[in-house]
Each structure stands twice: as C-alpha cells, then as structure tokens.
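User: I'm putting together notes for a lab meeting next week and I want to include a structural view of one of the chains we've been expressing. I don't have a solved structure, so I'd like a prediction I can at least talk through. The sequence is below, exactly as it appears in our construct file.
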Amino acid sequence: MLMEADLPNDVEALRALVLEQARELDVLKVFQAEVERLKAIIEALQRHRFGRRSEQLDPDQFELALEEVEMALAQAQHAVDNASRASADRPRKVNRGSLPAHLERIEQVVDVEDKACPCCGGALHQIGEDVAERLDVVPTTFRVLVTRRPRYGCRSCEGAIVQAPAPARIVEGGIPTEALIAQVLVAKYADHLPLYRQAQIYARQGVQLDRSTLADWVGRAAW
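Assistant: Thanks for the context. Below is the predicted structure for the 223-residue chain, given as structure tokens.
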C-alpha cells in the first residue's frame, strides 16, 4: 500500500504512477470476473450431479469437468493474488490437505554456513527452528528378481543330480511376480485404469508389455 511519503513530487511521475495503478485495477477486475464465472460453472456442475437422474452427468465426465474447472479457478485465483500487491491483505484460505503421520519423513536441514554472531563474533546457539512439510512421491520403479537354483552332482557315482524345486508361480513360466500381478489388478479394478493404459505407463519405463499379456495375467489370477 502506497503511503503519502512514497508519492513522487514530480507531476509526470505521479501521473505515470496513477496510470499504472489504474491498469492493475483493470487487470484485477478481469481476473475477479473470471473467478466468479468459474464458480458459477462449478455450481452448475454440482446441480447436474445432485439433480434428477435424467439431468445427472456420467460420474467420470463430471469429475473430469470439475477437475478442469477447479484447476482453471486456482490459476485465476493465483493471478488475482499476484495482481493485488497490498501487503495488508489477509492470505486466501486454501485447503492444502493434511499429511498422514504414517508416511515416511525424509528430513532436510537447511542451515547457516557461519555459526558466528554477525555482531560480536561469538558462537551462536540454536533457539528454535521453522519446520515445513511437503508431500513428495516416488514414481513406480521396476526391478528384476533373479532366482538361482544350483544343481548338485555326486563325484562318486555321478548318477544323481540334486536341485531345489522351483517356487510356485501364478503364471507358470511367466515373468510377473505376485506383487506385479496384484498391482495390475488393483489398478484395473480399484483405480479403474484400463489395461492398455497400464501398458502405456510401463512402456514409459522401458518395459514393453502388450495389453493381451496383462489380460492373460488378470485371467490367470482370477483362477
């Protein structure tokens, strides 16, 4: 917020400042109008969702449309916040979600390099700290489990070969582990992710699996 002491004495500079403030107000009004328009769209979508059955949208279509509108609303609101430079404005309340206590915490300490007092040169001691948490994700990574089964023979008779039996598999002779098959099943039936999309996700990590192969795994797991 401009104070009287911040105003320039030069008439031309003052005129330029007034014009700049006017332009910023115009931009702010445009963004605020966009926010109101998007809010109206969200309300209309919600009426479709909870209205009569004949007026309801397909759940997937509704969630997709609502997601797009909410992202646009967040962008417009962010632009409004940036356009408004008044430091006295209260921050917008945003539901950022809560981070569950059971999640693994990876701590990163950002400390000062010099722990000598900048005033007197004495040793500094910690009197507190600021802690901020952010939600991170580790993308799915593939690994290869190698099973080795040594074969043993007798030097005396050379007639016997001994080897441990191979572990049982859901897909005999196949490459998937039980964990991978479980992942495919959960993604398909719990997350409603079609097999062809799962194949595309795996391909991005260099694992080429046909949709028919995944379908075979799902069918075998069901029996």
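A couple of points you could mention at the meeting. Confidence is low (pLDDT under 50) at residues 86-94. Helices lie at 11-50, 59-83, 178-190, 195-204, 211-222.

User: Perfect, that's what I needed.
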